[in-house]
Structures are given as structure tokens and as C-alpha cells.
Amino acid sequence: MRRSKFFCISVCALAMGVLSIQAIGQQLPALSISPIPPTLTVGQSFLVNVDISNVTDLYGWQLDLNFTPGVVSAGTATEGSFLGSGGSTFFIAGINDNTGGSVTNNANTLLTAISGVSGGGTLEVFDFTATHSGSAAFSLQNVTLLDSQLQSIGASLSGATVTVKGSTSVPEPSSALLFALGLLCFTKRAVDRLLLMIERRTP
Q: Does domain 29-165 have CATH number 2.60.40.680?
């Protein structure tokens, strides 16, 4: 009887161990956002990387990046190195909306490769500028990951936050400078008109 109980306990423990190993092996791919650096000053440019880890057979992806408008401003976006490690790609940089706080319809796909890429790396790199002091949050939305059979790949998503310190906003041209520039333009036009009048009166 004791041997039977011991055998059952051993079998259960072994089964739990196998299930734990399978669960570890079946962890979802993870998409994360990495601002570089996470602490900024007003007027400073910085990069925001969208990274992926623990993915298998990734052939194409699409995503939207959301951010806090008024604190940071989106610039250009470039392709990360991960998907291109599997062959030629077709990359589409998204559309910036600095008023609403988004860069939408970013996408990339392999073109000639038979299978996708596995592992982890950077999918896309966004260039930003800190425009006002405060805290800016970044998040991912409308994410689609496809394997080489065009089947959807599930993934977990995580965001990030940056802190902007310094002046309240990117310095604007001073009123005195704007007045001087306007006066300069007015003076140039006046001189041009005067020279034209002299030319017309000269026999």
C-alpha cells in the first residue's frame, strides 16, 4: 500500500515537472518599449526602440505606437535589425500624429525568405524630441505578428515612461528677435524700392 502511494506521488511529481517545462517553453513572445535614455531635458532628442523576445518564425508585423502628446514629439522611424536578419524586407514607417500622440500603421515583412526569424531583437526605432517638461508614456496598440504560414502569433505587450526635466517648453524665438527680423525685411524692401526709383529717374 505504501509503495503504491509512493509510486503515485512520484508519478504526479514527474507529471508536474513536465508540465512546468512545457509551460516555460510555451511562453508568449514579449514586445517591449525601450526609451534611450529614460530621463531627458527639454529640447533633447532620443530614441524609442520597440523590441521583441522569445518569438519563433516571425515573418511579418504591424503595430501602432502611442505616446503622450505635448511632452514629446515624434520624428522619423527606421527599421530595426531583427526581421532583416532573415532576408530582404519591405518596411513601412508609420504616420506621425503629434497632436493626438501616435505613430500608426508601422509594418514590416520578409520578402523572399522561406521561414521567419526566431529569438529576439529590435523591430523598429523611433526618433523623438522632448518638447515640454513632464512625464510621457509610451504604449503599443493594434499589434499583429505573423509567421511564415501567415498565422497569427500571440504576444504580451509592455509600455514605458520617460521623464523630461528643464524648461517648460522648447525655447521659442524671442519677441525682440522677431521684431529685429521684421525690421530687417522692411528695411531691405525699402532700400530695394529706393534703388529702383533712382534707376528710373537716371537719364
A: yes
Residue 101, φ and ψ in degrees, nearest 5: 85, 60
Q: pTM of this prediction?
A: 0.71
* Separation CA 105–CA 126 (nearest Å): 13
Write out the H or E segment, with its range, that includes residue 7: helix 2-25
C-alpha cell at 162: 520617460
> What is the C-alpha radius of gyration for the chain, rounded to an integer number of angstroms?
28
Tell me how crowded residue 71 is: count the other CB atoms within 10 A of its CB.
Answer: 22
Contact 64, 105 (CB under 8 A): yes
pLDDT (tens, 9 = 90+) of the chain, 203 residues, equals: 444 443 343 434 434 443 333 434 468 999 999 999 999 999 999 999 999 999 999 999 999 999 999 999 999 999 999 999 999 999 999 999 999 999 999 999 999 999 999 999 999 999 999 999 999 999 999 999 999 999 999 999 999 999 999 865 554 444 444 444 454 444 455 445 544 554 554 55
Instruction: Quickly tell me which residue has 522611424 as its cell.
Output: 77
